[in-house]
Amino acid sequence: MHRFLRLSVLLMGLFSAVSSYATDAPQSAPMTPDSLGPLVEQPIEFPHNRHAKDMQIDCMYCHTYARRSAVAGIPPLRKCIGCHQSIETVRETPRIKKLFEYWEGSKDGKIAAKTPVPWKKVHDLPDFVRFNHERHIKRFIEQQNRPTQEACGYCHGDVKEMTVARRSKALSMGWCAGCHEKDHPVTAEGGTPIGNQAYWYSFQKPVANASGSAIKAKGPNDCWQCHK
Ligand code: HEC
Ligand code: HEC
Ligand code: HEC
Ligand code: HEC
Ligand code: HEC
User: Fold this and answer.
1) How high does pLDDT run on average in the chain?
2) Is 98 in the pocket of ligand 4 (CB under 6 A)?
3) Cys-Cys link to 65, which of 69, 84, 121, 139 (CB 3.0-4.6 A)?
4) Residue 126 lies in a domain
5) Which of 95-99, 122-126, 136-140 is modeled with the greatest confidence?
6) What is the pTM of this model?
7) 220 Cα to the center of ligand 4, angstroms
């Protein structure tokens, strides 16, 4: 009875959250060609390819919090400036001039000095979903020893090739649960299997912890774990 009550309260909460979410969402926001999310226009087009691929800067050098908190975080302006103030080759390009306007203030006075760049969210799960980077990153990178880009890439696609970050995975409930549920085939919305199943399941293989005992945890499939 107790569990039943808990679940109905959860469901009521969810449905009201869903309906308010639906009414809040702008009806006509342009979507990416594959409808995975809204097309986001950034104040400065940030080239992930030139930083993460050409210069091989680690994803977590910029997204510092991924391994220790729920959010991965967007790097602060001073991190960009720290490097860019000594890079002459691109100092006069329109995008870097704009970057320095946020740092030094714009001549027309419209942007004050040290204004954080107003980056827009590319991924944005509804508020009733709880997602935490830390546990996933610890598992994939620290315990399973996956290369960082591969581990991030599982949920974000091949960001190092992107000239503008954009959503490339569904991030739907079925998609999350597909990886959590051990013998559940990982399928796209229409039921088509996604990618290499054996590879996907390898993310759930038990791994040995420091003391040699196996860590078996796959992700939860209980509603309340993802919808607290
Ligand atoms: C030099 C710093 C830097 C590096 C290195 C970097 N990023 Fe980013 N990342 C940013 C900035 C700035 C943004 C915000 C602008 C944007 O969304 O395009 C961003 C945005 C993102 C987003 C979208 C965030 C959202 O709003 O949903 C993802 C996902 C992401 N990065 C993943 C990665 C991955 C994976 C790597 C490694 C392959 C990486 N980043 C390397 C600076 C960096
Ligand atoms: C580790 C040093 C480093 C950091 C940190 C860094 N950059 Fe860069 N960035 C570079 C270098 C070097 C280039 C030039 C690369 C090239 O010539 O391809 C560059 C190129 C760029 C360009 C393309 C310039 C153009 O128009 O040709 C943009 C935009 C940019 N960076 C924005 C940012 C932003 C925003 C941040 C902070 C989130 C940032 N960078 C952090 C080193 C860095
Ligand atoms: C298991 C899937 C998964 C993995 C692995 C993952 N992310 Fe995410 N990431 C997400 C989801 C889901 C969101 C959206 C969260 C939200 O809207 O509440 C997100 C959001 C982000 C954002 C936007 C800011 C934020 O934290 O909400 C950045 C930046 C980001 N991820 C970077 C990374 C990087 C870098 C890695 C690898 C070190 C990584 N992610 C690994 C699923 C993942
Ligand atoms: C590639 C496989 C994979 C994907 C995709 C994935 N997860 Fe997980 N998740 C795991 C594994 C493995 C664990 C167990 C980690 C551990 O405890 O070591 C986990 C643990 C969790 C936990 C419990 C730990 C915590 O942080 O409280 C939650 C909640 C969770 N995942 C939510 C999500 C959501 C929401 C999504 C989709 C946006 C998602 N996961 C996508 C593999 C995945
Ligand atoms: C692994 C994480 C996870 C688990 C477990 C989970 N959900 Fe979800 N749920 C999500 C995500 C992520 C979304 C957001 C989907 C989106 O934005 O497209 C969601 C959305 C929803 C919605 C909104 C409608 C919809 O389909 O988009 C409802 C209702 C819901 N979940 C109920 C439940 C119930 C009931 C359970 C238990 C049987 C459950 N969820 C288990 C991750 C999870």
Assistant:
1) 77
2) no
3) 69
4) no
5) 95-99
6) 0.88
7) 7
